[in-house]
Every structure is written in structure tokens, then in C-alpha cells.
Amino acid sequence: MMKPSLVKGTRDFGPAVMLKRKFIINTIETVFKKYGFMPFETPALEQLDTLTGKYGNEGDQLVFKILDSGDFAANCDEETWALKSSKKIAPKLTEKGLRYDLTVPLARYVAMNRNEITFPFKRYQMQPVWRADRPQRGRYREFWQCDIDCIGSDSLINEAELLTIADLIFSQLGLNVTLHLNHRKLIEAIATKFNIGDKFNAFVGLIDKLDKVEFKTLTPEFKELGLSDEQATALQKILLLLPFNEESIAIVKDNLNDLEQATVGCDTLSELAKYINVSKLNSPICLNLSLARGLDYYTGCIIEIKANSVNMGSISGGGRYDNLTGVFGLPGVSGIGISFGIDRIYDVMEELNLFSDLAQTDVKAILCHMDEQGRLYNYNLANQLRNEGLAIEVYPDIKKLPKQFEYAEKKGIALVIITGNDEIESGQLSYKNIKTKQQGKIDKNELSTFISTISHI
């Protein structure tokens, strides 16, 4: 007999976990709707030429490829097989892949439906994505993203709203976070200042590691790029975290010698700061010049959000992209978006025990019985209560009451209604509150109101 197992990097979610995940998703969705974003979905499968070339070389390697239907190997000649190279063979066997993120499919959709879309196009999307990554804490091969994007507007109001939305969501989830902000032009200016513009990608790859390792650990690698000891010290000073305000922006501009890229980046952040000051965020926001996520398609502001006191990396992030729809034949359409990683948010909240007050079930009461007559009575009663908008469960079998009480307790159902011959004849139903141990009688006609006042366990 085959032993059942899961694909590495994937997980099952039982009812207890799903209730917590749904709580996160519903909280996020409610805030999205409040700001005018509309629901949207794309297929799990995309054409490989849609996905590849958008995430950099490393990202392309993490796209899950789907073998063609039928005799998928028929188009692969012996010469190609002999190379034993997956990169050479794969194009002969597959033309489809699993969705890597939600932003590229959005850009594809916008390009395909440009004449039907009302711009600015504000959508939210909550779906799983897949990456052929090495599974580790906080990193999975299948995981959920909750994205919002605004396509077709250059206004910095969009950046300000995304930061405000993120702040509101995490406040409602009870999570203390720090918002990190940067601008692509500032990273370009730093590379120009240290004369390593021709090694920009390698430079970005190094500074992107600084949220995981100390600067001194990477000093030898910065020297390999051509930086002297003095330049490495100067770079470390520039990359220090600063509070996001006009004074910090002025310091950055001065450190970068008023380079053209620095002026563009700092002027943009200065304008954004005006909106942020009005927003009155609950969470701290900092200027982080080492933030370089997604630079393969981000062209302006870059956003990353990290939970305080938990070593998890970012739990949300995004930025401005001006050229993504251009690769699909729709140039000149700017967009900005932010993604919330449901799985990482869940892991952080679980670690911080933030689900302790969350109900285990939506069921308000369970109807119990001791014989067939009671069961039939309860089945009819449950339907009446459900028609009044209550979530009610009927114990399906005829068993001793302690067994039924045990079932209710394990499921987190506080109120048990017991129906026997006496109760049916009198209309006075017995009840027990498993949470408070209170018990007594309640008139059938008052049952709906009574149940509505009972809390979950």
C-alpha cells in the first residue's frame, strides 16, 4: 500500500488553519474594497513566453513548467536529447507554466483588454502562485498572494494609498510592522556615485542581501566590484536606515552630490512625504536605500513591509512599474501595486499568538437529541433557525449526551440545545453553555434571540 505524502513545499490546511487564513483574507479584502479596488482573477496556467524574461534569470529558473499534452517528447530530436541540458530540452517539451506572481498576468490582461478597461484600473487579486524554490521557513512552493494594483495613473496618491492600506490592514490584524521605502533612481545614483554603473545588477544583488547579513560580511564582495576601503565605508553610511521625512531626504540628496538620478528620486519622495504626513500612519516608515526588491520591473518607488520582533523577512511589498505592459504591446502605461503574502502573515501571527481570540467555528449552537424523534425535531428546528440567519449544526447520530457535548467542545461550539420528549411537548428546550457551564430552559420562540447572544468558546 502506498504511503500518502505531500509535494515538498506544499501544505494541507485543516479547518482550524483555514479559519485563521480566512480571517486574514477577509480583513485584507474589506480594506481593499474600502479604497475602490475591484475583484479580479487570472488562470493558474500562463504561456511561458508571458512569464519568462520578467523576473530576471533567477526568477525564470523558478517558474514551474507544464509538459505539453499528448506525446510531448515527439518534437525533441535526438541531437537535443543528447545535450542532456534542461534549458535546451524544455522549450521542445513545454509551452505553459504555472503563475509565478499576480503582477505579470495582470499586465498581460490589461494589454489584451485595453479597449474594455476603464483607466485608472484598480483591481485586487487573491490567488495562489507557484515557485520552484527551495522550501524553508516562510518560503513555500505554493503560496497565496493578495495583490492590489492601480494601472494607468502616474499620481503619487497611489503610492500614498498603498502605504495607508498596508498600515490599516496590519493594524486591524494586530501586527506591529515597519514600512520600508526606497526609489529605483536612488539606487542608480549610488551606483553612479561609486562608478559601478556598469556592474549595476551585481551591485543590486549585493545590497539586497543586507536585510539578512551585516555590511562587513559583504565588504569583500563590494571590493570585487571595484570599491576601495574608503568607498565601502562611505557606502555603508549612505545605506543606513533613516526615518522617512524631509530632513532624511535632504541628507540623501546631499550624500549623492545632487546627481540627476538622486534629484529625481528625492523630489518624488518629497512629494510623497506630503501625502504620508496627511495619512497619519500608525506604523513607523523608514527610508531604506538598500531596498532593491523586484528591480527587474520596478522603475520608481519600492515598498517593503516587515513584521517587528519576528525574523521572517518581508510580509508585504511592491512598487511602481512603468514598462511592464510595454512588453505586451501597450507602452506608456504606468502602474503600481503591492502584494500581501498570506502564508508569511499567517506564520507571523501564529508565532505571536495573535489568533487566540479567534472563534474556532461560525456555528453558534448545536442541537442534540437522545432518540429518533428528537433528531427529526432538531432537523426541522435547525432549518428554521438557519432561515433566520443563524449558523446551526445538528449532531447527526444518536449517542449519549456526554459524547455530543465532547464533540461540541472540540469544535468550539459554546451552546448546546438538548431536545427530548419533555422538551418537544412543552416547547421549553434545555440548554447548556459549555463555556460558562450555565444551563437551564429556554422557550422555543425565544431561542433565536437567545442563541444570538452566545459567544464562541
Supply the CATH class of the largest domain: Alpha Beta
Major sheet: order of its strands? Answer: 1-5-6-12-11-10-7-9-8
Shape: elongated
CATH topology descriptor of the largest domain = BirA Bifunctional Protein, domain 2
Structural class: alpha+beta
Number of helices: 18
Mean pLDDT level: 90
Largest sheet: 9 strands, mixed
Number of domains: 2
The named CATH superfamily of the largest domain: Bira Bifunctional Protein, Domain 2
At CATH level 2, the architecture of the largest domain is 2-Layer Sandwich
Indicate the percent of residues in helices: 40-55%
Low-confidence stretches: none
Q: In what range is the share of β-strand residues?
A: 15-25%
In short:
It contains 18 helices and 17 strands.
Task: Describe, in plain words, how this protein is organized in 3D.
With 457 residues, the protein is of the alpha+beta class. It has 2 domains: 15-44 and 100-351, 2-Layer Sandwich (BirA Bifunctional Protein, domain 2), CATH 3.30.930.10; 365-452, Anticodon-binding domain (Rossmann fold), CATH 3.40.50. It has 18 helices and 17 strands. The chain has helices spanning 15-34, 48-51, 56-61, 78-83, 86-93, 103-112, 157-173, 184-193, 200-207, 215-224, 229-238, 246-255, 260-279, 342-351, 372-387, 401-411, 421-426, 447-452; strands spanning 38-39, 45-47, 65-66, 96-98, 121-130, 142-151, 177-183, 242-243, 285-287, 301-307, 314-321, 335-341, 365-369, 392-394, 415-419, 428-433, 439-443. A 9-stranded mixed β-sheet has the order 1-5-6-12-11-10-7-9-8. A hairpin with a 6-residue loop joins strand 10 (301-307) and strand 11 (314-321). Helix 12 packs antiparallel against helix 13 (260-279). The longest helix has 20 residues, at 15-34. The protein is elongated, with a radius of gyration of 28 Å. The two termini are 40 Å apart.
